[in-house]
């Protein structure tokens, strides 16, 4: 474990913000709002990012990319199986998403989760100055704050959970609930996407660990842990710039043309069971049945990004989604008209924004979602106050995007009716709603989000002084 230099600011996440390009044999930056939001801080403070490269058994020395020190953590094939696919994605992911799928509890997943979290903590301790700042991201690394605190009592430690923190009735099932809570409470600041997350965590920590709720946080083990509600956001300016570019405009026009000039209803999701894609398709079937006048003027574009393809639940879900698309197209299609165009792939940013520009209606209908950035990206791309966002009440984003057409994704009739409403919405109402949504994502973008989180962490220095 050779470290080039100690850093005063370390970010840790399961993945490094780079990926290896096999063909070009070089590292590329992964796209994403989180990296762009943190880049200025990381560069200014000569920061380090600790994470996994995405490849098994890759022992790499730290290296620099994009003016950020990259500090790889090696994971074996067994770690990937048990820590990542097992505990992270088959225990925590379903449990924290309201147990939409039944979480599995296995000791042979838990132990590797602990071991890998310890390894991350060791790498972080190697990388950070004793009184430096560490910002840990997401459910893969919930034990890391405690492990770092043991070694580095003067470090300022922040943790941000990107997914929901579940209600106590669900969290209580976790056989290792005390260990997870103790892990998180090693941080100085624990932040969540929604106020509900803060409330659920407070209740769980009080009940299962005896932590004492106080103003803005908890007292535990003689320490104050600040709890924060900081909804993540998008790089609104970057989306708007892309949306205004002539290439994207031209691409959006060509999508419109390909869809026969019809109104376009768009869905863009990772193909995950939390996102409610099958339910959305069933609601679209109802829409085509009940509102034939409106529906015949519409075409649906559903783009699903491949994800977790080795997991049975995800393979089954893909089959379900493709069967539903086939059924709807069989029932409502006719020569020259395919109601649903379905694509199973990730898109480059320009194509994604062209889809946002082409779409008259954006459908974001998860059963449960920490935030949902697609909803905010769509709004950021509608610089001319056009378009309608149909949004699930169960996305974290619904707390801020109140002028969307809010729906319950299980209520297929309501969703179908909302699609009809969205298409028929008078221009004035459409612009008023979108202008209000845009004001929200303009004022509170990903830079405001990271500044808010880092400010809370910097504030901790005063406590330690
Ligand atoms: P995700 O579950 O991955 O993230 P989401 O917030 O929707 O969900 O982010 C998806 C990202 O992938 C978006 O930036 C989107 O542009 C991109 N994407 C989706 N489909 C794509 C496609 N076909 N091609 C290219 N890109 C595509 C988790 C939580 C969320 C939380 C985020 C951030 O589950 O609730 O909002 O972290 O905290």
Order of strands, main sheet, comes to: 5-6-4-1-7-8-9-12-11-10
Shape: globular
Number of strands: 18
> For the terminal residues, how far apart are their CA atoms?
31 Å
Named once each, the bound ligands are: adenosine-5'-diphosphate-glucose
Number of discrete helical segments: 17
Q: Report the C-alpha radius of gyration, rounded.
A: 23 Å
SS-based structural class? alpha/beta
Could you tell me the strand content as a percent range? 15-25%
Q: Helical proportion?
A: 40-55%
Mean pLDDT: 95
Biggest sheet, open or closed, and with what strands and sense? 10 strands, mixed
- Provide the low-confidence segments as ranges: none
Would you mind describing this structure in some detail?
The chain is of the alpha/beta class and 465 residues long. 47% of the residues lie in helices and 21% in strands. It has 17 helices and 18 strands. The protein has helices at residues 33-44, 77-96, 107-127, 144-151, 168-171, 177-184, 195-209, 236-244, 246-258, 277-290, 292-295, 312-332, 349-358, 373-381, 412-424, 427-443, 446-464; strands at 7-15, 18-21, 26-29, 48-52, 63-65, 68-72, 128-137, 156-160, 189-192, 212-214, 217-220, 223-229, 263-270, 298-305, 340-344, 361-364, 388-392, 405-407. A hairpin with a 4-residue loop joins strand 2 and strand 3 (26-29). The protein binds adenosine-5'-diphosphate-glucose. The site of adenosine-5'-diphosphate-glucose (ADQ) has 18 residues, from strand 13, strand 14 and helix 14.
């Amino acid at each position: 474990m050779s470290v080039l230099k100690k850093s005063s600011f370390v970010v840790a996440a399961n993945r490094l913000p780079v990926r290896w390009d096999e063909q070009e044999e070089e590292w590329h930056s992964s796209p994403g709002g989180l990296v762009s939001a943190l880049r200025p801080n990381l560069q200014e403070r000569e920061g380090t990012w600790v994470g996994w490269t995405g490849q098994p058994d890759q022992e790499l020395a730290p290296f620099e990319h994009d003016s950020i020190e990259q500090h790889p953590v090696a994971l074996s094939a067994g770690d990937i199986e048990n820590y990542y696919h097992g505990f992270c994605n088959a225990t925590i992911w379903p449990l924290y998403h309201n147990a939409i799928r039944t979480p599995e509890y296995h000791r042979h997943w838990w132990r590797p989760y602990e071991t890998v979290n310890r390894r991350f903590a060791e790498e972080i301790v190697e990388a950070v100055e004793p009184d430096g700042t560490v910002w840990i991201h997401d459910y893969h690394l919930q034990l890391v704050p405690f492990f770092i605190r043991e070694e580095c009592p003067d470090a300022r430690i922040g943790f941000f959970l990107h997914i929901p923190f579940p209600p106590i009735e669900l969290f209580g099932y976790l056989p290792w609930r005390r260990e997870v809570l103790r892990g998180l409470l090693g941080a100085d600041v624990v932040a969540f996407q929604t106020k509900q997350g803060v409330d659920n965590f407070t209740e769980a920590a009080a009940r299962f660990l005896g932590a004492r709720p106080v103003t803005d946080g908890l007292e535990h083990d003689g320490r104050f842990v600040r709890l924060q509600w900081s909804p993540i956001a998008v790089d609104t300016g970057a989306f708007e710039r892309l949306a205004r570019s002539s290439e994207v405009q031209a691409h959006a026009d060509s999508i419109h043309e390909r869809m026969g000039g019809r109104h376009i209803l768009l869905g863009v999701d990772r193909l995950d069971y939390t996102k409610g894609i099958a339910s959305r398709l069933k609601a679209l079937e109802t829409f085509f049945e009940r509102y034939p006048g409106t529906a015949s003027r519409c075409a649906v574009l559903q783009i699903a990004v491949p994800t977790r393809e080795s997991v049975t639940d995800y393979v089954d879900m893909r089959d379900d989604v493709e069967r539903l698309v086939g059924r709807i197209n069989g029932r409502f299609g006719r020569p020259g008209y395919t109601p649903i165009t379905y694509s199973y792939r990730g898109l480059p940013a320009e194509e994604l924004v062209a889809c946002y520009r082409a779409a008259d209606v954006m459908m974001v209908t998860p059963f449960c979602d920490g935030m949902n950035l697609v909803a905010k990206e769509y709004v950021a791309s509608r610089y001319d106050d056009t378009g309608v966002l149909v949004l699930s009440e169960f996305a974290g984003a619904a707390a801020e995007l109140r002028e969307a057409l809010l729906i319950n994704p299980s209520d297929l009739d309501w969703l179908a009716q909302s699609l009809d409403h969205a298409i028929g919405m008078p221009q004035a109402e459409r612009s008023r709603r979108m202008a209000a949504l845009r004001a929200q994502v303009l004022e509170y973008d990903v830079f405001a989000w990271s500044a808010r989180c880092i400010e809370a962490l910097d504030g901790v220095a005063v406590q330690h002084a």
